[in-house]
Amino acid sequence: MERASKKILIVDDDAAIRRLLRGLLGNDYRMAEAASGEQAMEILPAFCPDLVLLDILMPGIDGYETCRRIKASRSDIQIVMISAISSPEQQLRAFEVGADDYLVKPFDPQDLRARVRLHFQLREATAVASSIRAEIESHNSNLRGLTAQHAQEIVAIQDAAVFTLAKVAESRDQETGGHLVRMRDYSHILAEELAQDGRYADQISGQFLQDLYRSSPLHDIGKVGIRDEILLKPGRLTPEEFETMQQHTVIGANILDQAVARLRGGGFLAMAALIARFHHERFDGAGYPAGLVAQEIPLPARIVAVADVYDALTSVRPYKPAYPTDEAESIIRRDSGRHFDPVIVEAFCRRFDDILRTQEEAVDDFPINYGAMAFREYDLAGV
């Protein structure tokens, strides 16, 4: 992407802040400025920014309403809120109206530049994933006539695009781990078992299995919006930090909803958005972000929850050793009916030997660290 096509709109009533942001970013991006939300909406159609740096407290319409209006008119625009307001409640409100990231004043210039670069990478990766899916769907009627090899090549390209998108969220974390690969395989094993002779068999088609396999790696894409000092903290999170960490579910769903909006129906990305939003819900209603109970939680999210937590428990993290597999299985069993759907836990236990075999054979093709977030719930509870 050429510099001329990377455009940023700064929206802040403070002229000094606008000058500062232009000074930090002006050499790398085309810039425009607005002193209010109303002025931003006037500039938007002609300037067509890729990213908006948006203040919250402004005269006239505030940043929340400005964000909502921008997303309503152009859902593909990335919006980073920059504000002196730093409470988890205010940040969650920003994400609920569509913000993609949140920086607290005073911000670190290097962190700002890194976040901006990250959002352009995310925008590009999302466009790749969406265009590949759109191309496949547009040629759906012709897929039957393709050779098996050609069809497999298309699927491989699609999967590569998904992993590229997932890796963007982890670009600030240099630890290695095969979590994406393992939890994807675990989720597929569980869904296959549930499709055989279970209470959810009528909900699990061949398409469901394919969509789950492709969408599950995107479950934590919302980590892109979590501040480094929380995301990369090696020790136990405080309750306040954990509350901020919870916002990754809303952020991730917003990111994926943007991709879905570009497609008719969204395909596997629609399932990915559901998983991103609801994979931390609990069967007993004590989860987040919506406090859903039992079957209110979408089935793909219930499946991924078991796979995600099991792999997190059995993986080494900076703040813990790996749990032995039998102990991790006992934790999953113990939380049947509380954290996890009992039907899925039963499937997990029936296929545990296959899960162990997959765990031993998994190759770390994608060297990034996932899974820490799933474990932190148990860490916070003192397990």
Report the end-to-end length measured between terminal Cα atoms: 47 Å
Overall spatial form = elongated
Integer-rounded radius of gyration: 21 Å
Largest sheet: 5 strands, parallel
User: Percent range for helical residues?
Assistant: 55-70%
Write the CATH architecture name of the largest domain: Orthogonal Bundle
Number of strands: 5
The CATH superfamily label of the largest domain reads Hypothetical protein af1432
Helix and strand element order: EHEHEHEHEHHHHHHHHHHHHH
Proportion in β-strands: 5-15%
Assign the CATH topology of the largest domain: Hypothetical protein af1432
Uncertain runs: 171-177, 364-373
Under CATH at level 1, the class of the largest domain stands as Mainly Alpha
Strand order of the largest sheet: 2-1-3-4-5
User: Which secondary-structure class do the elements indicate?
Assistant: alpha/beta
Please count the helical segments.
Answer: 17
Concise structural overview:
By secondary structure, this protein is of the alpha/beta class. The chain is 55% helix and 6% strand. It has a five-stranded parallel beta sheet, sandwiched between helices.
Would you mind describing this structure in some detail?
With 383 residues, this protein is α/β, with parallel strands linked by helices. The protein folds into 2 domains: 3-107, Rossmann fold (3-Layer(aba) Sandwich); 145-380, Orthogonal Bundle (Hypothetical protein af1432), CATH 1.10.3210.10. 55% of the residues lie in helices and 6% in strands. A 5-stranded parallel sheet has the order 2-1-3-4-5, with helices on both faces. Helix 7 (179-197) runs antiparallel to helix 8 and helix 7 (179-197) packs across helix 13. The model is unreliable at 171-177 and 364-373 (pLDDT under 50).
